[in-house]
Amino acid sequence: MSTKARGASYAESGVDVARLEGGLGRLLGRLAATNDYPRRGRPVLPNGFFANVLDLGQGMGLALSTDGVGTKVLVADALRRYDTIGIDVVAMNVNDVLCVGAEPIALVDYVAIPAVDAELIEQLAIGLAEGARQARVSIPGGEIAQVRELLRPHGPDGREGFDLVAAAVGVVSLDRMILGRSIRAGDVVIGLDSAGLHSNGLTLARRLLAPGESPELLASKPPELGGATIGEELLRPTRIYVREVMALLDAGLDVRGLAHVTGDGLLNLLRVDAPGIGFRLDSLPEPPPVFRMLAERGGIEAAEMYTTFNMGIGFCIVVPEREAERAIGIVGSEGTRSRVVGHAVEDPSRRMVLPGPGIEGTGKAFRPIA
């Protein structure tokens, strides 16, 4: 992994996470009062979890989350391939709902298009249906909006774009929510393999591998990718972890923490509610080739890479050490590779330490270990 910085960063590619935090604080401050409005279904969690949970009474909660797929839609548009992007939007939402211990049950989508395009809509539906099959959820409704004025032309041919977002809901008993509060020092972190970039960091990845969605670059086959084109690698669907996580919960394992590795990378594990607990991930696997290629082409520091990308780990599960072997076996039975990547440690400052790449972090960014 390169440790030289030659200017390539997520912020300079147009995504300033630090600045976003300031705006997010203002938004949440304004919306906090709405928690008191409902007659029933009030939120039981503060903001900051992957999903919130509404109290429906009789001990049942409704988990909900919303997300999109960001600039991955630009890759789909450039390749004129729309039959996988629906899998991504399902994944980004149901994986978040899982993180409070809820079982996803349904999702609704929103598609913004410049004008009616029957072929585009049909291809999006193919991906949405496949994502729903993998996640075992229904898609009982949605919305298609024709908003040409809002969609800026892009790409070599100036094609008007589209956007795809969704919201998912799940169910969980309020006394069985998994929030991280039972995590103790010595518990192990199991990392589940990602399928590649998933749907985060695409703004930087596109800039480095196929600036301007160049058709020639998207069609190229760098030897590092083992026969895949850059376009295929960028468009590879996000992995859905519903079957793996539900299999663990159905088997009665003592699952103490769940984290979907999206924006902010492995720092997402710090979103669990475990006061005085940090994590030391000292057994991370070698990042897949696409991440090494990005680091080398952009001369990107390890801290930036691990903040922006999942680096091969798409989901983390925290269990007691005695449960680790069984958990890995159950995940493997669902077709996903996993391994122990580290453990929880006592740490009042709640740091995430990665000895291999030599970085540590709190909040939203990694930095070199002093």
Q: What's the arrangement of secondary structure elements?
A:
Layout: H1 17-31, E1 52-57, E2 60-68, H2 72-79, H3 85-98, E3 103-113, H4 118-135, E4 138-146, E5 153-154, E6 159-160, E7 163-173, E8 188-193, H5 202-209, H6 215-219, H7 230-235, H8 242-250, E9 257-260, E10 277-280, H9 289-298, H10 302-308, E11 313-319, H11 324-333, E12 338-346, E13 352-354, E14 359-362, E15 365-368
Parallel strand pairs: 3-4, 10-13
Antiparallel strand pairs: 1-2, 2-7, 3-7, 5-6, 8-11, 8-12, 9-11, 10-12, 13-14, 14-15
Helix pairs in contact: 3-4, 8-11
Question: What keyword list fits this structure?
Answer:
370 residues; alpha+beta; 60s Ribosomal Protein L30, Chain: A; Phosphoribosyl-aminoimidazole Synthetase, Chain A, domain 2; eight-stranded mixed β-sheet; five-stranded mixed β-sheet; 11 helices; disordered N terminus
The secondary structure category is alpha+beta
Q: Going across the major beta sheet, what is the strand order?
A: 9-11-8-12-10-13-14-15
Q: Helix and strand string, N-terminal first?
A: HEEHHEHEEEEEHHHHEEHHEHEEEE
Look at the structure and name the CATH superfamily of the largest domain.
PurM-like C-terminal domain
Ends apart, CA distance between termini: 18 Å
Q: Report the β-strand fraction as a percent range.
A: 15-25%
The first-level CATH class of the largest domain is given as Alpha Beta
Helicity range of the residues?
25-40%
Shape: globular
Radius of gyration, in Å, reads 20 Å
Major sheet description: 8 strands, mixed
Q: Helical region count?
A: 11
